[in-house]
Amino acid sequence: MNVPAEVALLAAVLAAPDDAGVRAVYGDWLQERGDPRGELIALQLAGIGAVRARALIERHGRAWAGALDRWFEPGARRFEDGFFAGGRVLAAPPADQPLDPAWRLVRTLDVGRLRDAALDLLARPELAWVRAVHGLREPAAAMLAASSPPRPLRVLGFATERPTDDDHGAAASPSSGLELGFATERPPDDDHGAVAAQRAELALDGDGPALPAGPLEGSASRFAVAEGLPELRELAVSLDRHLPAWLARAPVLERIERLTVRARDGLGPLLEAIARRGGALRELVLVGRGAYGMIEEAGWRIVLRRERAPGPFSSVTARFRLGRGATLRRFAVGFAETMRAVPAGWPHELVFDAGKRLPLPAEDRELVASTLARFAQLAPPELPWSAEPPRAERPAGALDVYLRGPGLLDAARLPEVWRFVVDDLGERYDRYRAGKRDTLHALGAAPLDTLAGALRSHRVQLVRDGHRGALGLARGDHVPTTLELDLGARTPEAFIAWLARFAAAIGATMARADRPGRVPPPDEVVHALDPPFAWLMLFGPGHARVLPAAAVARACRVERAGGGILVVTAPSPAEATDARIAEVRAHLRAVFDAHLADHLGYDFAELAHAGLAAAAAALDLPLVARGPMRVAFARGVAELEATLHQPLTAPQVRVSLLGAPSLWRPVLVLTPRYTIPIASADELRHVLAAAAAECARQGAAWLATHGEI
């Protein structure tokens, strides 16, 4: 590839971020050389081939995002005209470092994670071409709306917030005005366009049955007029329970063409008030609670349209897309919740757009039908789903079995898994899912051959008619392999013997059997320090060698099976009551804690607390209780932690400094994860001190700009 030519073409794109012609020239140059990015540029410039474009982005999106990828959530990448154009921001780049020139091509930002630092990021000159901002809090949105000089935003998304009982709190009467105030120390002429007053207020009316139609007064007009955003054409508002009446009568609504609202209870009066307004508004979008985000396509989007204003929104498109946070389980419920806000006399035309036919059980179809019955004038729409066999009730003897071990989804192990589960245990499956999608595929006459192609996925689930019973296979240690079954005529003793043979054959390191729905699959229970104890737990040879079977046997039945497997059970599945589980769990926790100290010769929590204390103090991070195997110091988005892994078999410690920790994963690792085997208490002290000092050194600069977020 001609590198100088490509550099010149890229420089031309960065020099003219809004010039589609320059992008087209670069795309043609890439296509001539067989580069798939050239195809993406051509498709998106022409506005065609959305399915193919999504496939290209899924395969190459991370590489094409380049240096910007680390600052954005992977599942929410956006591309426009073939170039990375933003998404949900994980953390802001340090203020003292220059931004990559590719930021000039960013058009859409969801800055919800940044909170009050969002305006600082938006003020940087490299982001002058941003056209859509989502995730702001209400005060920041008001400041942005009053920007000076004006900003070229076309889309603004924010969330309203209910006031607290401070001096700007709720008024005495719910029908009287509410004021939400915020203070700013920035001067009136700063580069954030702060309002001149040291305090700006947003006036919110109560949530009574009707919304006042009088003129706006006072400081509420600062946001409602949005003089600092003259090109604003779309608002996306996530409402709290107190409906902002100014939204229905704000002057800015005269030029808004599309209004997106996250549905809440009591939204109907606001919609009726909006319908009485004139102006440019022709499209009203209600985002259901089943949607993951305001700028993503997953979940429900109830799109209402009208031909003229004022007037009702009589044309309705109910869009649903599977995706993150939006599963078939939320299909009917999300539709019913969202449509509840639509006035009964509005829809005269309703179209379902689900992208494909969706299999729904009878109860979900009935819920959708009862929701549609509210709109008497509506012609019956074409429904985008097929009937699905009803789920059979789980029998009293049903069990959920979780197994952990390396490579349980490996192709070499699949015949062995199939022999044990299907041939020996007698389970039967006729359909399967691959990956995270809900699509069911026929297993076919040669199931092992059929599954061979599905093994590229990290998860494969086999089911039978009515979804009664499933086998979920997972790749690697981090996601457990699951098995749903009915003991039926099998005795617990026969099942235990079968499970022991199965675990030994496939190399499982742990297994657990429980009643359905009691305990979610474990993330890290291999060490057995704090077991979510079920009716049965099975430990592989590595753990069986060191677990104190005699001490455990005082609360449970303990057996040593073939292959060094240790099986720990309550007396029977029927006796695994909540009280019995709590009793067994308390006993086992005490046994494991005591044995861990004896086995290792030190108290990990005590040593880790001492080893991290100096670094945590330097970073101003207070101690956060995590348990005997994980010691953490955290404040805001920063977390310095030490975690002990595999203490009973091969103890090792991991020390890391994380930024913006989330529910699912550390979204930004500020330092390397120092994972080091530990042989003695002295070695642990040395490793903790060295790793913590390095974390403090590398993290100090980052925390200086992000630690208070």
Brief sketch in words of this structure:
By secondary structure, the protein is an alpha+beta fold. An 11-stranded mixed beta sheet has the order 1-2-3-4-5-8-9-10-11-12-13.
Topology:
Elements (H helix, E strand, L loop, with lengths): L2 H13 L4 H13 L3 H11 L3 H16 L12 E3 L2 E6 L19 E3 L7 H5 L9 E6 H8 L9 E5 L18 E6 L15 E6 L15 H6 L8 E5 L7 H4 L8 E5 L5 H8 L7 E5 L11 E7 L9 E7 L9 H9 L9 E5 L4 E3 L1 H11 L12 E3 L10 E7 L9 H11 L6 E4 L6 E2 L4 H6 L6 E5 L6 E5 L6 E6 L5 H15 L3 E5 L21 E4 L1 H4 L4 H4 L4 E4 L5 E4 L8 H23 L3 H15 L4 E2 L5 E6 L2 E8 L6 E10 L4 E4 L4 E4 L3 H26 L3
Parallel strand pairs: 2-3, 3-4, 4-5, 5-8, 8-9, 9-10, 12-13, 14-15
Antiparallel strand pairs: 1-2, 6-7, 10-11, 11-12, 16-21, 16-22, 17-18, 17-19, 19-20, 20-21, 22-23, 23-25, 24-25, 26-27, 27-28, 28-29, 29-30, 29-31
Helix pairs in contact: 1-2, 2-3, 3-4, 10-11, 12-14, 18-19
Keywords:
alpha+beta, 19 helices, 31 strands, 709 residues, 10-stranded antiparallel beta sheet
Please compute the radius of gyration using only Cα atoms: 29 Å
Oligomer: single chain
Mean pLDDT: 75
- Which structural class do you get from the secondary structure elements? alpha+beta
Head-to-tail CA distance between termini:
44 Å
Sequence of strands across the biggest β-sheet: 1-2-3-4-5-8-9-10-11-12-13
